[in-house]
Amino acid sequence: MAAEEEAVELRGAADDDAHLRRLLHRRLAGEPLAWVTGTAAFCGLTVSVAPGVYVPRWQSEPMARLAADRLPDDGVAVDLCTGSGAIGMVLRAAHPRATVVGTELDPVAAACARRNGLVVVEGDLDGALPPDLAGRVDVLVGVLPYVPDHALRLLPRDVLAYEPLRALDGGADGLARVGPVVARSPRWVRPGGWLLLEVGGGQDRPVADLYRAAGYRRVDVLEDEDGDPRAVVGQLRPG
Fold first, then answer.
1. Which of 45, 125, 165, 175 has its CA 20 to 30 A from that of 150?
2. 175-227: pLDDT as tens digits
3. What's the pTM value of the predicted model, to 2 decimals?
4. Where would I find the H helices in the chain?
């Protein structure tokens, strides 16, 4: 975001000049803008983001919109590692009658997602989901940690200094969390349902292979305008 745009957001969040100075001081120290202002824009929605919570990125928006497109009006969706609940909010806004559940390990993030109107179960990945969702999920979506260990140092300084490492660190190849979720996902996703997971550069092919090994068909890679992979999408074969 350009400095001029950040200035507009900071002024909009400030009650008076003294408050603006305090907000500006926090931002100049490197604190994420969303933490300073308390909100982030995502798919046209205003998402409350508490300090300490992973900030939703614009790069996740195409996947969120596609997940909403795949969700029936009265369907069931699960947003893994929901963070602030941004993706879940998009799903609920598109399908008010659908059942949308988020999972989150961090209690601060879980509380933030609940303030954003999302139903959240606390626990690690899909391990927190209630058993009665087994085989009923139309859309399973998530921004899991996928940054390889060796690439963490390449992230922006403010991200490394402030944002929660466990929301970013995906292990040696970046797939330490993604791989097990793909393998377990057929327990939750109904036949014909969808799995959408965000990926980083160079991860699309190995993740697509994991999808196929788990029983998914119509496996596609969602790319951004520059042709970079952003997510892998697959439909579970009928049983």
1. 125
2. 999 999 999 999 999 999 999 999 998 999 999 999 999 999 999 999 988 88
3. 0.92
4. 3-13, 17-28, 33-37, 61-70, 86-94, 107-115, 157-162, 178-184, 204-213
